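If you are new to this repository, start here. Below is one unmodified record pulled from the training split, so you can see the exact layout before writing a loader.
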Amino acid sequence: MELLASAWFVIIGFCIIMYVLLDGFDLGVGILFPFFKRQDRDMMMSSILPLWDGNQTWLVLGGASLYGAFPLAFSLLLPALYLPVFVMILALLFRSITFEFRFHSKTKLPVWDILFSIGSILATLCQGLLLGSFVKGYEYVSGSAVLHYHLFAPFNIACAVALLFGYSLLGATWVIGKTTGVLQERMYQIAYTCLPIIAVFLALISFWTPLVDPRVMAIWFNPQHLPKLIILPLVSGCLVVFFLYALYKKYEKILFALTIGIFLCAYVGFGISTWPYIIPRAVTIWEAAAPPDSQLFMIVGAVILLPVLLGYTFYAYYIFRGKVTKIVSESLEY
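And here is the target side for that same chain:
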């Protein structure tokens, strides 16, 4: 049972990071929309149009897996997080509408661009607030079926703002790899602006995280594990320094990969701080796990579905690789 629960924890964690990385760059493109003119916005939209709908599949798969593998966690988290989750889904729906309408609207195009940007910003801020609340943890009295937490705590707000700049960097480096000319140069400037801000937030949240709960501090400052854990901030620092060098040299092909590396380091730190809780500091993965027969039945489906989804994802990105060469209203040419 412990092995199955751990396996599902890894699967859900994998789905979450895939969603963050893949949908993160198109959210970042939406965040950056207000800083560009219409022609540039059209090119930015063209770079993500063939891929955005498949990116959100990972969020659906992660939510469905949580419901099936850890029903107790799902039943506790959904009511407690109803407001931020509802706003996030509503914002994502607004974005989905704008993808289609902005290419066919002649007089209302600025309205759809505004809605696309607002939806991207709201979805990102909600995800950041949820991330902060998970790191801080929840208060739970067994039998009460109610989680207690503070959504707009300073730590949560800091995580939300950090994610806003993080997604902006993902979006900027994605567009750098997909475009040329003036738009690409503008994106280099945005990346230069976002990188030091993200580095500051990484340092701030890294020092702040052990202070949110004594149990988190006990994990990060355990003398037995400290020599291994120190590797993570060192790798993060090296990635930031090399990122700055790559920006200076304009190595456009690796900037997006370096941004992913920074996100992965932050995600590993998040996993270390919360393990083995599926609801941090409230319910462990073993306490919330479904019966072994249910988990085993779902594992069979996951073994089939995950390779198909990964194959589709890699194939789609392979087909639409390269620079965006032309903006068209209903189809794209690469």
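Two things worth knowing about this chain: The chain is about 75% helix and 5% strand. The domain at 2-319 is CATH 1.20.1630 (Formate dehydrogenase/DMSO reductase fold).
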